[in-house]
Amino acid sequence: MIQFNCDGSLSTTTKWTIKNCTSTRCSFEIVLNEKVMTIYSELYIPSRTLDYGVYQLTLSVTMIDSPNLKASSSVYVRITAT
């Protein structure tokens, strides 16, 4: 969870990025279709949107009044056949 502790405006922008991971690193950013909204704090990815593999999902939060104040958090997911 990302939390800001400050006296100024708490207005923020959010952005999700998704990278495809290989065995050594996660460097290939995935461009999703316009149906996947990446500007909200929650991310919903419909089934069959991502191919099988490992992905790094990163949520970045930036203060609108102070763009230098940023935080991000990542999670790794594996898409497998069921």
TrEMBL record:
Organism: Adineta steineri
Protein name, entry field: PKD/REJ-like domain-containing protein
Cited Pfam families: REJ (PF02010)
InterPro entries: PKD/REJ-like
Domain PKD/REJ-like per the UniProt entry, residue ranges: 2-81
Highest taxon in the source lineage: Eukaryota
